[in-house]
Structure prediction request, 201 residues.
Amino acid sequence: MIERAAAAALVGTTRLLVGARAQWRAAPPAGQCLYFANHSSHLDTMAIWSALSPAQRARTRPVAARDYWDKPGLRGYVAGKMLHAVLIERRREDRDGDPLDPVIAALHAGDSLILFPEGTRTAERLPQRFRGGLFRLAEAFPELHLVPAYLDTLHRSMPKGAHIPLPLYCTVRFGEAMQRVGGEARDAFLERARDAVVALA
Prediction:
C-alpha cells in the first residue's frame, strides 16, 4: 500500500514538473508491449511511465542501467520499489553472461518494458543510431507489440549533466505499434524503428 502511494506521488510529481501528457497517434495495443523512445534525460523513464494509464503502468517496467540506478538512497528506492526496473550491466567488466538476460526473463514473465535503444543519453533532439538489442528482442518475441514513443522537450528540460529540471511541458507521443518483418535484416529493422520515433518528433 505504501509503495502504491509512493508510485502515485512519483507520477504526480513528474506531471507537475514536466507534464508528461500522453498523445496516442493510434489506439494503444492490447497485450504485452515494448515501448522504445529517444533518450536525452534522466526524467525520460519517469515521463514515459507516468504517461501510461494506471493499468498499463501496473504491468510495465523500465529497462535501466545498473551502474546509475542501483544505488543506496532515493534513486535505488525509486528504481527498485516504485518502478520495479529491470537493471542491466553496461560495463563489460561487471557482466556475467548476456546483458539482455534480465530483459529476456522479464518478457518471458509477461512484463511490458520501456527501452531506450540508443543505449545512452544524448543532447540531440532526434535519436542517434539504435543499438542491436531492440532487434534481438523483436526477433525472440515476435508477438510483442513494439510501440515507438517520442519525448518532445526533455532534452532541454533536463539535459545530460543537469540535476534540476527546467519547467518545460513535455508531451509523450506514442505511435502505432510495429513488428519485425520476417527475414528483415538487423540494420534495416533498426533504421525502420528509429524512423518510427523520428516521425513522432
User: Anything to note?
Assistant: The radius of gyration is 16 Å. The chain has a mean pLDDT of 86.
